[in-house]
Structures are given as C-alpha cells and as structure tokens.
C-alpha cells in the first residue's frame, strides 16, 4: 500500500477571490466558494475518517459566496447550515490554509484532491499556474480527484497535448444553468463561461443532468458534479473511489 493511501489525507483547494467582474468589467459582484458545495463534501469525507488539509492561491482564507447562504441551496439539509457557517467562521485550520505553491510541494502526502465550486475559482484558480500542475500531478499518480460544479473548468488550464483527462467523461455546471445564473441571479456575464463547450473542445466527453437536479459522474479516478444540489451523488461516488484506494 502506498504512503499516501496509508495516511488517508485529502487536500481541499479553494478559491480566495471575493469579487467577480461582469459585463466586461463594468459591474462588480460579490463571489467566493459555494458554502454547501464545500461543506457537504467536507463533512462526508471527514466523517468517513479522512484527515483534511486546505489550500488557497496565496494562503488567504477563502470567502463564502453570499448567494450560497440562501436556504434554497440547503433543501433537505437546512439543519446543517448553522454548522457549516460555524465551521467556516471559527475552524482554525480552515482559517489558515497553506498557499497553493506549498500544497504542490506536499502533494505526495495526499491520496485525494477536492475543489468545491463557486464562481470565485473562475477569478483566481483558473489563472494560477499551480492549478494545472496540481491537477496533472494527482492525475498522473492516479489519485482521487473531485471537481464540483464550476471546478471542472480548471481542467481547461492544461493544454490539450498534455492533458491527462482527454477522453474522460465529465460533468460540470450545465449550459442552461450557466445561462440562468447569468440572466436571473448575477444579471451579467463573466469573462470565463461556457464551461461545457470548453471541455468538449478539449476532447472530453461531456454529460449533464436536468437543471437544478442532482447529477455526478465518475470516470476512473475523477468525479465531477453539476450544481449545489448534487452533493449526495458526488459524495456517494467519491467515497466509493476513496474506499477503493485505501
């Protein structure tokens, strides 16, 4: 058994961005990590007995996307929202993440990588050179990788000729959901969008479920999920993958 599997450590990488520019930079919107997309995955993995470390681009504490606090995103799990808020605000280890560069140096210590969604990662992680390096390292070592909602967009940071995920079946926020978010929630288009199209252009197979419905896909060591309502589907697939690796 490999060292990283014995350790049972999982690395959570999060955006630390707090502002998203819309309408070609003419409009600013608060952004960050979607709280339930982070916490449901985090709780499931922690409850299963795995240790968790945290990293952000520069080591700054991640920001919550205020949209994600809406009760709409916590249907069936509303009692967990105060617990999630308390963890985010008061957990010392979470509040002091390591810089992404250090996480890359320590990647041998981890058996898995999880990146929660939220538009924040489309502001910082997608431009950070450590992001493709980390994804490639985990993929080449056949470690478990979980990318939630917007996070599959980070696969596009790796050039096609060296992208280890070419040919994989993936999921992400769907084209209709992107349209709905931009039209009715954010009321403006961000610079980085059309994730499904970008994934297809990289020769990945793209699948999605209905808008606002739970949906996730696993292909080999990669689990991807669609939206804030997909935690149950994501957790089931990802925990099974982690169990196979121990």
Automatic annotation (TrEMBL):
Keyword Translocase: no
Keywords: Glutamine amidotransferase, Lyase, Stress response, Transferase
Keyword match Lyase: yes
Coiled-coil stretches noted in the UniProt entry, renumbered to this chain: none
GO molecular function: glyoxalase III activity; transferase activity
Record GO biological process: methylglyoxal catabolic process to D-lactate via S-lactoyl-glutathione
Pfam families: ThiJ_like (PF17124)
InterPro entries, A to Z: Class_I_gatase-like, Prot/Nucl_acid_deglycase, ThiJ-like
Source species, domain of life: Bacteria
Cellular-component GO terms for this entry: cytoplasm
Family named by the database record: Belongs to the peptidase C56 family. HSP31-like subfamily.
Name of the protein in its database record: Type 1 glutamine amidotransferase domain-containing protein
The species this protein was found in: Algoriphagus lacus
Lineage: Bacteria, Pseudomonadati, Bacteroidota, Cytophagia, Cytophagales
